[in-house]
TrEMBL record:
Stretches that traverse the bilayer: 25-46, 101-122, 134-155, 161-178, 190-213, 233-256, 293-311, 332-351, 363-381
InterPro entries: DUF6056
This protein's name: Glycosyltransferase RgtA/B/C/D-like domain-containing protein
Keyword Membrane: yes
Amino acid sequence: MSKVKERVSAPLISSTQQERKVSRVWMVLLALTILPFLLLACYTYPSIHDNYLTANAILRGGRAHYIVKTYYTWSGRYSELVLKAYLEPLTYQNAWQLEKIGAVGVILGFFASIYGLLKVLAKEKKIKSPFASSLLLFTLFLNGLSSVGPVFYWFDGYTAYTAGIIIFLMLLSCLAAMHQTQRSSYERFFYFVGACLATIVGVGTYETVLLALGWLLSTGLIVTFKQKGSTRWWWLSLFLLWLLSACFSLSAPGNLSRAATALPSDTHLFAVGRIMVSGVKSLYFMSSMLLSWSNNLLLILGTIVLLPFVTHRQQECSSFLSIPKARRVISLLLWLVAGLSVCIFPSILVYQDVWEHTWQCVYGFFLLGWAFSASIAFRWLRPRYAIFERALTDKVQLVCRIAFLLICFGGSNSNTNIAYLDLKFRAPEYYQRTLQRTLDMQQAQYSGKVGRVASVLSAPESYKQPKILYTVPYNDNDVVGFAHYYGVDSVLAQP
């Protein structure tokens, strides 16, 4: 009998090629969820609220004088003061164009800081596809914010808490690289120096960031000394550096002056009873907000989609949290809740409430902790319960990705959807009216008439106001500063 050879035709497209195509399509779609925020930067502008007052102070006394005077009279955030003094667009020509460049730079810088962290983790094969993971995390951050405008489109905002989160991410990257034994001693020392610089700069951006850094570095110091790690003296150096920087920032005379304006004259800020009550309120407020943030379908779907990008090889598990046990997972969650509560403590101590800006900053730390905790918990639960294994199947991942994108592009509360609507319908007209208001003030300077500042939109037109851009109302002092910037001495604020 003759042997019949059966020819098996090779598939036209290999599974690897299919996976690459699917991955590219997924990354393009994720990029489209971020695109409108970049395009909206074309419609950002110097805000009457605070920006002109800051610019006037810098132009009147000089940049160095502004830093020193503000440190002694209003704020000890030395990094924020330096950024404001030297980067305030209104102190340069083409201020409106620089405002747009600044917004784009902050958005791209924030994404780059996420990518830099995941790229470092990818070196140990703990993260797959760091670029796609960065896009996903950035999309979750943008859509989890209650107000995007102050974070990316307001100069006085992003020089404080947004810059602080970026520096915090850079510090995490340096700390992770510092512990990678496959790097040379020179490289690891280089990242240690980077961590020192990030600590100094981060402390001076925002009090919430200052406390987050202290919580992270003190924990790292305790863990490394307990384990007698080779980097424990570096951690000690970083903690001492944080302590010195924090003392310089918090002891600024301007901090007490600022707190005095928010407190009745008979209130003792550092009374024991007030501190204890504020601590309990911090824990309660933070626990409530954590429940609110975690009760988000987009975040849950995004977390499920993120899980396949996290490597869970048993042979790679060697660090304190790499082989998780129940008590370690619970300890991690309690550590995060306590740390986030510490971050909002100063706001509650002074104001007995939490500013929206503080919540925006804390949400960034929450998202980092959420992603890390989810990967640790999944590593522990996956071998014990089959349902967690099924979460990685192609069908489940496809359904979750489709649902994630549908909510992003079509959800009424999705910031991505709102950003596209702003881009198409609201932002262009609002920008033109804002520009015309500025031109009218310049015309008042040339004609010598009384300047008039009216709301960009009347009450019946409030539906035309952009939801993503920074459009916070201004007060009389802001109006006076706006007029003085353009050389107008008399100004009338109109509703």
